[in-house]
Amino acid sequence: MCNERLGMNRCSTHGHGSRGPWIRRMASAPKGLLRHYVLKLLKEKPMSGAELIREITEKTENRWKPSPGSVYPLLSWLLDSGYTEESPEQEVGVKRYSLTEAGEKLLEEHEERRKEHHGGFPFHGMPFLWFDSFPEEAKEVVESLGNLRRVSQALFRRLREDLSEDTLKELKEQIDETTARLEVILKKKNT
Questions:
Q1: What average pLDDT does this structure show over 83-87?
Q2: Cβ atoms within 10 A of the Cβ of 162, count?
Q3: pLDDT tens across 15-51, in order?
Q4: Residues in contact with 89: Cβ distance below 8 Å, sequence separation at least 6, in sequence order
Q5: 3-state secondary structure (DSSP) of residue 37
Q6: C-alpha distances out from residue 164 to 52, 115, 133, 153, 177, Å
Q7: In angstroms, rounded to a whole number, what is the distance separating the alpha carbons of residues 79 and 72?
Q8: Which H/E stretch holds residue 40?
Q9: Are 39 and 114 in contact (CB under 8 A)?
Q10: What are the angstrom distances between the C-alpha of 30 and each of 76, 94, 156?
């Protein structure tokens, strides 16, 4: 199966390409993620479809490249719905879009919905896409949370195995201690 629609152009009889089974999950991006990301980028500056694809690809370090077949229909829908407008400053042959007030409101609604559904936790779906939505000073903590998530997922898989009682006890103690320490830090008033 080829992952051409993901812009990867990698084929494999198993659908994994050279990046392993992770790439298969890429095809099932959470609904509305591309729309959210496009709105977010257009809020920063007017961009064309090709520029949006390039920017998303760069920001995700080539882990996700939306196809033109996804981006351009989305841009048409946003324009027809009044969420974007064609930028008045156009190069010949390049159509750039910018957010309207309605588009900014839609982006705010997306942000609120994400916070409600995921408690603001950015790791649903494709964690690397939410990375740039944090202040610069918080990004190291976000990276650490990503590492914690990775280890937690590995731990869930290992719990299905026959681990010794000592190992299970040690894991529980570490998790409980770490959780308690994090809760104390979060309860401090000078957040």
A1: 94
A2: 4
A3: 444 444 444 334 445 667 899 889 999 999 999 999 9
A4: 46, 96
A5: helix
A6: 50, 38, 41, 19, 20
A7: 11
A8: helix 33-44
A9: no
A10: 21, 29, 22
Which pairing describes strands 84-86 and 97-99: parallel, antiparallel, or unpaired? antiparallel
The sign one gets for the Cα dihedral 164, 165, 171, 174 is negative
The residue written with tokens 């974007």 in the block is 84
Please write down the long-range contacts of 31-34, taking CB distance under 8 Å and 24 or more positions apart: 32/110, 33/125, 33/126, 33/129, 34/66, 34/70, 34/71, 34/74
- Tokens 């152009």 label which residue? 9
* Sign of the dihedral through C-alpha 157, 160, 12, 31: negative
User: What is the CATH architecture assignment of 4-120?
Assistant: Orthogonal Bundle (1.10)
Q: How far apart are CA 28 and CA 30, in angstroms?
A: 6
